[in-house]
Design a protein that fits this description.
The structure holds 3 protein chains of 3 kinds. By secondary structure, chain B is of the alpha/beta class. Chain B has 14 helices and 17 strands. Chain C has 2 domains: 121 residues, no CATH class; 158 residues, no CATH class. The chains are: A alpha+beta, B alpha/beta, C mainly alpha.
Chain lengths: 284, 445, 326
């Protein structure tokens, strides 16, 4: 009886000592501020900042003297301000952004020319071939971007076969931008009321080829660039691009575009101009 | 009988469809579209412009670097366009389109039928000729042959192995070449041996082609240095590393090249092209293509000018009736074609037509850890693990599990009872790991 | 021609004859001889238990998949049927059906589906169910019906263990044992394990169809034989003979059908050998010195838990690996 108590008690004491020593030996000295900063960060671990997760981000924030290059797209300016206040460092101001899918090649606009039958991944399909439509630049529609979205802000629309961004939820972490092998998704400035004007096409094919593959392709005609009063539109490689830092959202280009590749969202309906056929197309 | 040491599978060889069809010259089409990148390495640079007249065998694009290859016109006629066109996978690639007028060959090409057997050129002259004539590996990898023949300093080649395995099911192009042009093939092999400075030539043939083995044995009897090695049928015996191991018993070290074990491997088609280039001054502008399929009306082996649209070949052999999938190459490693109007290139060993009912994959289940993929992998990797690591994006772990050794033979996907697309993922993982390895190497420099 | 939509997929474009359904079907075929012997020995009861067990397993899997995991039905792979049959084979023929239902819930519900279904469970589901019953309902699990021609209601292993514990020498115990009859199935035991001959016919079928390799069964039985030979040679009057050990209890059923379960066995041949030797040794330790007369189920479950470790450290032979060591 006594020996049992001694053995068990002794064993317990010995192991406790061992645990204590090991904990002591392997104790890692850490700046307590890292924990605090991590608490301020949203904790999404999305990697949008360029680090492996919020922990790594907070380590960088604490350890670096100049944190103006660091930015948490999820928490946004408020979050960065609070961190900067806490750490007593200066922080960069950034405008809120939102992810934009620059392809309107829905099943109607862009007929399917073949049937993909492999692992369901845009990356695999795009490394195999140009895609299941005549357009080799457009959305593949297997949803790699939606899988990478940590915020439930991207969903495939089963009717169009294209991903759609939920602006309320999108934090502009950029995970989808990286996930898309066709580089269709872009982070653009978030305007009030969700207003947006952009070229919903990334096809660099010649006008005729692009148009043959997709009804709403940008054919690089350059009409939009001519009509733009702010020099915001450039045409390169048969493709127009609207610089969102210059665009003032006058919507002239939208009317000018012959294929409806330039789209507008979030604007009040236009007054009907004369009797011209409506070419704004795909708005909403 | 010899074979490679680990893994491998036994797909049914399906060669009976086109096996008996003698090679026949495919009629020259009205226009040909010749891609500028038909090889691994830098694309060739066009040296003709719209409106130029060209002859058969004339250079129309120069090599874009050392690891590159010139392109020759396969027809005589007028260049009508130098522009990007969709390749077999639908991607826009630079091409030269030529409208055919007659069939006028360059004067320098020896068109006589006589088989020339005496090799008078020196080593350097042979390599220069091979480079100039645009010869690339014709088994499908299309690596420029002159690069492979230039043995790096410090390494020594000990033997030449002619890859006459044709382990891909369905394909019979190499088989027909062996039967019909075996004598030229052997001369080609001897030229290659001279170029790398070895006096031992092995020709590895699988035992499902006994007549080819017998025929070449008879032809090779007069040359002591040529040895025909019958191999036990097993896929992927035609993989370079597998073939070397099967023939010589030596394993190319992980991350190494065949030359590390003193071997240089060349394909049957390449050897024939080398013979024609060196002895007949004929550039690589046509090749033997097997057009086959289980439902095809008349499967054939055709001698086709580079740039001929695949659709013309298909039409000639029976058409697209009930075809669900078109594959350029064999069923194990060939690439599915989305654009059948794309041209035959230097690497097109076959056009395989898969019937509609066999063209779709079965629904995938879940991994049951049966280890069939581990058993089948000829490189001794663990595909099930590489598959999940790729999906998790853990590239460090992938590299630690020797992802870079993968030869993309497809044995894992072939043998998976749950129809998992193992290789689909593994290929992505390999590409990423290779990219990382290259980046590290660049950073070191 | 342009209107036809071609299928495009990554290579390879052909597939082998391997198929989960086909392999599960082969396992079921391989189990049939043992079922036939069981019916011959115990009457129709084994059929009832097997059918009931299969029905329960299928139902549980369907239920969990449909209402808890909310995924598409997984019944098509037939793995639930195989688990059902194997579970029944590990139970006495006169087991109350209520207990079979409990075992099915534990097997499929806890042993398999909690981990996410086929391919993800670390332990052999049928054995999880069996061991649960063995511990929770020991009496029902160790009373066997009088079999036609069998010697007693206790299994030969239990009988021998009791006798040896009481100090009876082996030679006397062996007087009650007819090894020939035992190998055919004339003995008490779980309904699937009794006929070694029938199980070996099934093994031959599995080998012929290349469903399993020889490594695991042969190494388990070999280890058991070696172990018992050593003990038998050292003390022939205290330990039963190797032949007795191989022919009795669940040795062959476990080695051929339970330990070879793909999901819970190692991926490499080398790993399989280590795993099998471990099962053999643990089985013999339990049989000779443990509290239970039979240790096959425990041994397999214990080694199942080691499989991830084996897979981590035992790698297949790599092509060209020898010379990379710098």
């Amino acid at each position: 009886m006594i020996s049992t108590i001694l053995v068990v008690g002794g064993l317990g004491a010995l192991l406790a000592l061992l645990l204590f020593l090991v904990a002591k030996k392997f104790y890692v000295e850490e700046d307590p501020r890292i924990d605090e900063v991590e608490k301020i960060l949203p904790g999404a671990n999305c990697g949008g900042c360029g680090f492996a997760g919020c922990r790594a981000m907070s380590e960088a924030l604490v350890s670096r003297d100049d944190i103006s290059a660091l930015y948490c797209p999820v928490g946004g300016g408020d979050c960065m301000k609070r961190i900067a206040e806490y750490l007593g460092k200066a922080v960069a101001e950034k405008e809120p952004m939102v992810a934009v899918v620059r392809c309107a090649g829905s099943c109607d606009n862009r007929p399917r020319t073949n049937q993909y039958n492999g692992a369901q991944s845009c990356l695999i399909a795009s490394s195999l071939y140009a895609g299941n439509t005549g357009c080799s630049f457009g959305c593949i529609g297997l949803g790699d971007c939606t899988l990478k979205c940590e915020f439930d802000a991207l969903h495939m629309n089963p009717v169009t076969g294209l991903p759609e961004v939920d602006e309320e939820k999108c934090t502009a972490c950029g995970a989808c931008v990286k996930a898309c092998p066709k580089m269709i998704i872009e982070l653009r400035k978030k305007a009030p009321k969700g207003r947006k004007i952009y070229v919903s096409c990334v096809s660099k094919a010649k006008g005729a080829v692009a148009r043959k593959a997709c009804k709403v392709a940008c054919i690089g005609c350059g009409k939009c660039a001519k009509v733009c009063p702010f020099d915001a539109i450039t045409v390169e490689n048969n493709l127009a691009y609207i610089d969102f830092t210059k665009c003032k959202m006058c919507r002239k280009c939208v009317l000018e575009c012959p294929t409806g590749a330039i789209v507008e969202y979030g604007f009040p309906p236009r007054k009907v101009v004369e009797s011209e056929p409506q070419q704004t197309a795909k708005a909403e | 009988m010899k074979t490679f040491p680990i893994g491998g599978i036994h797909p049914s060889d399906c060669k009976e469809y086109s096996k008996g069809a003698a090679i026949e010259q495919f009629p020259i089409p009205a226009t040909v579209t010749i891609p500028l990148s038909q090889h691994i390495g830098a694309p060739a640079v066009a040296c003709v412009a719209k409106g130029d007249k060209v002859l058969v065998g004339q250079v129309i694009a120069n090599a874009g670097g050392f690891v590159s290859s010139p392109i020759h016109s396969s027809v005589s006629g007028t260049v009508v366009a130098v522009e990007p066109k969709a390749d077999a996978q639908g991607n826009m690639k630079p091409t030269i389109t030529i409208a055919v007028e007659g069939d006028e060959w360059m004067e320098s090409i020896d068109r006589s039928e006589a088989v020339v057997k005496n090799i008078n050129l020196t080593k350097e002259e042979i390599i220069a000729k091979v480079s100039e004539m645009g010869i690339v590996g014709m088994g499908g990898a299309t690596f420029p042959t002159h690069v492979k023949l230039s043995v790096p300093a410090g390494k020594k080649a000990e033997c030449l192995i002619i890859n006459a395995v044709e382990c891909e099911p369905y394909l019979t192009a190499d088989y027909r070449v062996m039967l019909e042009q075996g004598d030229k093939l052997i001369v080609g092999a001897r030229i290659l041996a001279k170029a790398i400075g070895v006096d031992k030539i092995y020709i590895g043939i699988e035992n499902n082609k006994p007549d080819a083995i017998a025929h070449l044995r008879k032809l090779a009897a007069v040359y002591v240095e040529v040895e025909i090695v019958p191999l036990k049928m097993r896929y992927p015996q035609g993989g370079e590393k597998q073939l070397i191991a099967a023939v010589t018993g030596r394993e190319v070290p992980s991350g190494g090249l065949p030359i590390d074990v003193g071997a240089v491997v060349q394909n049957v088609g390449t050897a024939l092209a080398v013979y024609e280039a060196v002895m007949k001054n004929k550039p690589l502008f046509e090749r033997v293509v097997t057009v086959t399929g289980s439902r095809l009306a008349s499967p054939k082996n055709l001698l086709v000018r580079i740039g001929t649209p695949m659709s013309a070949l298909i039409e000639y052999c029976g058409g697209m009736e009930n075809v669900g999938k078109v594959v350029a190459g064999g069923p194990m490693m060939g690439r599915a074609v989305s654009n059948v109007d794309a041209p035959v290139t230097k690497g097109t060993s076959g056009v395989l037509l898969i019937p509609t009912e066999e063209s779709l994959r079965k629904v995938e289940g879940s991994c049951i850890r049966c280890a069939k993929c581990v058993e089948a992998c000829p490189m001794g990797l663990e595909p099930y693990l590489l598959n999940s690591l790729t999906q998790l994006g853990d590239y460090e772990a992938l590299e630690a599990h020797y992802m870079a050794d993968c030869i993309e033979c497809g044995c894992c996907t072939f043998s998976c009872p749950s129809y998992l697309p193992l290789l689909d993922w593994v290929r992505i993982g390999k590409a990423e790991v290779m990219k990382r390895i290259r980046e590290r190497a660049m950073a070191k420099k | 021609m342009e209107t036809q939509k071609l299928v495009v997929s990554p290579a390879p474009h052909v597939h082998g004859s391997n198929d989960t359904r086909r392999m599960m079907g082969d396992v079921l075929i391989a189990l049939m001889p043992a079922l036939v012997v069981s019916v011959l020995v115990y009457g129709l009861q084994p059929l009832v238990v097997t059918a009931f067990s299969v029905a329960c397993c299928v139902l549980v899997e369907w239920f969990v998949q449909r209402f808890m995991l909310k995924g598409p039905s997984t019944l098509g792979d037939m793995s639930a049927i195989v688990t059902g049959v194997l579970l029944a084979f590990n139970l006495p023929a006169n087991i109350p059906l209520g207990l079979v239902a409990i075992a099915a819930v534990v097997s499929i519900g806890i042993g398999k589906m909690t981990y996410g279904g086929l391919g993800k469970n670390p332990f052999n589901p049928a054995l999880v169910g069996r061991v649960f019953l063995l511990i929770a309902f020991p009496v029902a699990m160790t009373t066997f019906p009088e079999a036609a021609g069998a010697v007693t209601g206790a299994t030969p292993l239990a009988m021998a263990k009791e006798a040896l514990k009481a100090g009876v020498p082996v030679s006397e115990v062996m007087q009650n044992v007819d090894l020939g009859a035992m190998s055919l199935g004339m003995k008490s035991g779980s309904m699937g394990e009794i006929s070694v001959v029938a199980l070996l016919i099934g093994f031959a079928w599995l080998l012929f169809r290349k469903v399993i390799s020889w490594h695991i069964p042969v190494c388990i039985l070999g280890t058991m034989a070696l172990f018992s030979t050593i003990t038998y040679v050292i003390a022939p009057e205290e330990f039963m003979s190797p032949l007795f050990h191989l022919l009795s209890g669940g040795a062959v059923l476990g080695a051929v059908f339970m330990a070879t379960d793909y999901v819970t066995s190692p991926m490499t041949k080398k790993g399989m050998v280590i795993y099998a030797v471990g099962i053999g040794i643990i089985t013999m330790l339990i049989r000779l010195w443990g509290p239970y007369p039979e240790g096959m189920s425990f041994a397999i479950l214990i080694m199942n838990s080691v499989v991830p470790l084996i897979d981590k450290y035992v790698r297949p032979r790599r092509f060209g690996a020898v010379r990379t060591k710098k």
